[in-house]
């Protein structure tokens, strides 16, 4: 009887483990889909809305929405120390990242942006090595070198400025990848102490609020009544 119960428990655990792995893989695929379409969506948005107001509105509203969900679910809010950490991570990983990203997309092509942004793991790996969170391997070094080469090829392609490409825009996107890679590493301690939804809500909110003062001139100068007609950006 005991053996039978243990077999049943093992089977249930295996099924739950398989379900969790499937959900993890599905979540990662969805993340890739959203990140892959993000440059095109942002390119369309900033053709009508000034880049900095777009960033401020996008992440402040997203943060408030997620915060409402956090409160409805009754999830624990971070303490003072955790809140300070989320302010810093949100400033770098959401605010600085998306200001540089959105300005970069507005200056260069969506395809260049997507290719450069695919190098985000490089900066996460390098920061992890610097902080002692990762150990370098032979193939890891080779991969980082090849990724740097690929980014260099794309950025150098922007030197000519043809086809809508821009060196300044490409370099801004590179800065955004550094910020996003840093976010992936710096948020790990927070994710060990708080639910992912809590971390996402507060970092988005703080990132959006940090961008708001810089977006104020754009809020004032934009012709908001013309946005739906494609003539709102100045």
Q: What's the rounded overall pLDDT mean? A: 78
- Major sheet size, sense and barrel closure: none
What is the alpha-carbon Rg in Å?
Answer: 21 Å
Describe the global form.
globular
Low-confidence stretches: 1-13
Which features would summarize this protein structure in a list?
9 helices; 234 residues; disordered N terminus; mainly alpha
Question: What are the SSEs and their pairings?
Answer:
Blueprint: H1 2-45, H2 51-73, H3 80-107, H4 110-117, H5 120-130, H6 138-157, H7 167-186, H8 188-193, H9 196-221
Helix pairs in contact: 1-4, 2-3, 2-9, 3-7, 3-9, 4-7, 5-7, 6-7
Overview of this protein structure:
The chain has one domain. It has 234 residues and is an all-alpha fold. 79% of the residues lie in helices and 0% in strands. It is built from nine helices and no strands. The longest helix is centred in the first third of the chain and has 44 residues, at 2-45. Helix 1 (2-45) packs antiparallel against helix 4 (110-117), helix 3 (80-107) packs antiparallel against helix 7 and helix 6 packs antiparallel against helix 7. It has helices spanning 2-45, 51-73, 80-107, 110-117, 120-130, 138-157, 167-186, 188-193, 196-221.
């Amino acid at each position: 009887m005991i053996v039978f119960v243990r077999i049943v428990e093992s089977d249930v655990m295996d099924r739950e483990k398989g379900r969790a792995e499937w959900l993890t893989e599905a979540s990662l695929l969805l993340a890739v889909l959203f990140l892959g379409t993000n440059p095109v969506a942002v390119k369309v948005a900033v053709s009508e809305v000034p880049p900095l107001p777009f960033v401020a509105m996008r992440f402040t509203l997203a943060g408030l929405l997620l915060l409402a969900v956090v409160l409805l679910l009754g999830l624990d809010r971070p303490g003072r120390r955790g809140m300070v950490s989320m302010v810093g991570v949100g400033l770098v990983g959401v605010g600085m990242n998306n200001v540089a990203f959105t300005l970069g997309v507005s200056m260069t092509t969506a395809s260049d942006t997507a290719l450069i942004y695919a190098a985000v793991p490089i900066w996460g790996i390098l920061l992890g090595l610097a902080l002692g969170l990762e150990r370098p391997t032979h193939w890891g070094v080779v991969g980082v070198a090849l990724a740097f080469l690929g980014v260099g090829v794309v950025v150098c392609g922007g030197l000519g400025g043809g086809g809508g490409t821009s060196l300044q825009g490409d370099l801004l996107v590179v800065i955004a990848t550094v910020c996003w890679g840093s976010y992936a590493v710096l948020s790990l301690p927070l994710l060990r102490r708080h639910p992912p939804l809590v971390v996402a809500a507060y970092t988005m909110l703080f990132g959006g609020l940090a961008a708001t003062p810089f977006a104020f001139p754009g809020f004032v100068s934009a012709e908001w009544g013309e946005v739906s007609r494609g003539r709102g950006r100045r």
